[in-house]
Amino acid sequence: MEIKVLKDILSANDQIAQENRQLLDSNGVFTVNVMSSPGAGKTSLILETIRRLKGAVQIGVIEGDISSSIDAETIGKEGVPVIQINTGGECHLDASMTYRALSNLPLQDIELLFIENVGNLICTAEFAIGAHKNLVISSTPEGFDKPLKYPLMFTVADIVLINKIDLLPHVNFDTDAYKKTVKNLNESVEIFEVSCTTGQGIDRWLSWLQNQLRNR
After folding, report:
1. Nearest 10 degrees: CA dihedral of 54, 55, 58, 64?
2. What is the predicted pLDDT for the residue at 1?
3. In whole angstroms, what separates CA 216 from the centre of its chain?
4. How far apart are CA 117 and CA 94, in angstroms?
C-alpha cells in the first residue's frame, strides 16, 4: 500500500512538472534546479552568476527553504525578480509549489531561472519540478564520499559543481575519487571545479550556461 501511494504521489507530481515545463518553454525561460546539502554554496553560486551576467541575461530566482526568507532577501538586493517558497517542514520543493511560484514571476521578462531547492541530498532528487537541467553542488569540506552515500542525487544530475576548491589544501577531499564515483553513476554528467570565493572555475561554468541558453 505504501509503495502504491508513493507511486501515485510521484505520478501526480510528474504531471504538474510537465505542465511547469510547458509554461517555461512557452515563455522561453531556461530553468536550472539547484540542489545540494545545506551550506554547499547554492546561494553563493547564484549570486556570483547574477553579478557576472547582469545586463547580458535576464535572470529570475525561486528560493526554496523550510522557513525564513534570508536567501530571497539577499538575492533581491541584486535587482532580479525573486520568489520565496517556504515548505513548512517539507524537505524538498515539489511541482505544485513550483507552479505557484512561477505564477507570481514575470516569466515574459526572464531568460534564465534558478530554482534553489531545499538543502537536502535525498528527496529533492525524487520530485521533478519542471526544470530543464538539474545542478548538484558538492563542497570540498563535505568530503568526497557523498556520491556513494546519496547515489540517486548524482544519477539525476546533468551537471555537478565541486565548490570551495580554494579549501582543498585544508580539507580531506580526493577530487579524482569523487569524479570517478560520479562518472560511474552517471556517465554523461559534466563536472566543474569552482570557488565562489576566489572566482576560480566560474568562467567555465558561465560558458556552459550561456551555451545552454544559446541552444535552447
Report:
1. 20
2. 43
3. 18
4. 9
At residue 70, what are phi and psi to the nearest 5 degrees? -60, -50
Enter the DSSP assignment of 171: S
Beta strand 112-116 with 59-65 is parallel
| Per-residue pLDDT tens over the stretch 47-92 | 999 999 999 999 999 999 888 888 999 999 999 999 999 887 788 8
Q: Does the pLDDT at position 4 exceed 80? A: no
CA dist., res. 47 & res. 198, Å (int): 14
Q: Could you tell me the end-to-end alpha-carbon distance of the chain, in angstroms, rounded to an integer?
A: 41
Q: How far is CA 8 from the centre of its chain?
A: 25
pTM of the model: 0.94
Which domains, from first to last, does the chain contain?
2-215 (3.40.50.300)
Provide DSSP, 70-130.
HHHHHHHTTT--EEEEE-TT-SS--HHHHHHHHTTS-GGG-SEEEEE--S-SSGGGT---S
> Across the beta sheet with 30-36, what order do the strands follow?
82-86, 59-65, 112-116, 30-36, 133-139, 159-163, 190-193
Identify which of 94, 101, 97 has the alpha carbon closest to the alpha carbon of residue 128.
Answer: 94
Q: Which of 128, 92, 102 is nearest to 11 (CA)?
A: 128
CA 157 to chain centre: 9
Q: Cell triple for residue 148?
A: 556513494
User: Which residue from 123, 118, 116, 186 is spatially nearest to 156, judged by alpha carbons?
Assistant: 186
